[in-house]
Design brief:
With 393 residues, this protein is α/β, with parallel strands linked by helices. It has twelve helices and 15 strands.
Amino acid sequence: MKINNNYLNLKDSYLFSKIAKRVSEYKAQNPDKEVIRLGIGDVTLPLVPAVIEAMNKAVDEMGNADTFKGYGEEQGYSFLREAICEYYTQKGVTLSSDEIFISDGAKSDLGNILDIFDNDNTVLIPDPVYPVYVDTNIMAGRKIVFIKGTVENSFLPLPDENTAGDIVYICSPNNPTGAVYSKSQLKLWIDWAIKNNAVILFDSAYEAFIQDTSLPTSIYQIEGAKQCAIEFCSLSKTAGFTGVRCGYTVVPKELVRSDVPLNKLWLRRQTTKFNGVSYIVQRGAQAVFTEKGLGQIRENIEYYLENARIISETLTDLGIWFTGGKNSPYIWLKCPNNMSSWEFFDYLLEDYGIVGTPGSGFGEQGEGFFRLTAFGNRINIHKAMERLRKLSI
Ligand code: PLP
């Protein structure tokens, strides 16, 4: 018996446990001081009424012999896939329902999709980025080449004549930087992928936060994308489903490599290793895409975006460099006075009782940067910003 030795190459992911430890130490030493968390990467507002209503109805159906459901349709119920197709139609993208696969969230599919690609592929991963892309490829022993996000490229790296790889991850709006690719920037990646026979794994988990209508909310809004891109999306941040679990992955039939449609491979993979998302959850997800549901989730998203605006305004007034904060729940700032990410973390916690996330936890290029999130409640955001305005550096 041999274990998968690639797992031994994973770095310990101690970012959030280290944060928790520092915060609890601080609280033990300062029991009277209130700590405000601006590092939360999870939603805080409850599910909207349309979703609750639909799920309650589905629970009742499950308790009745005439309407009870056992195993569901392989790719997800057609009522949900069709609702998602309609959502894409509103974005100007035409998809057929067999190009959509319902999942229990984007994280699983982003990891599982690697099953359909040979381990011998070279993978391009932006740095800094959502750590799941890196770790899932290390587990498979794939060669990883980092593409650097910097202040100069506004944390939106682009391909050039030397960019070589078979698979590239693009996350837009980005976690952790909040940066969003424009249509013309994504077109450069699409042209590069088609020319190099590569595949783009496009993570649009935060697409619902995009307000600026000139920015793409799906890669398929750009010509050529169906020939080279798989899109991953999730209801986690869109509709507060982090604890409910539902997402979807789009594998266009036009996407063919080695004469094989990737849609066919993914269908085979999913039907072999995955048995679907519960009927109750899929009914809740369907309700998100109704007029009522979309209106209700919009209110929640606007609430978070207003939090982001308040944080951004404070940073602007303080003269601190940042990206994101618009079209995204994340604000990515340059630590003042050339502090390291962890120095700034300690400074904010000890002097202001504010908790954020050190940028170095998202990749080497994140050193010297810091992530704040807009998922907290408004009162706390105001309180934290009042404290931050006193920043004496
Ligand atoms: N992609 C990005 C960029 C994320 O930040 C997250 C969650 O934080 C996910 C995917 C995973 O989302 P899900 O809850 O659908 O698994």
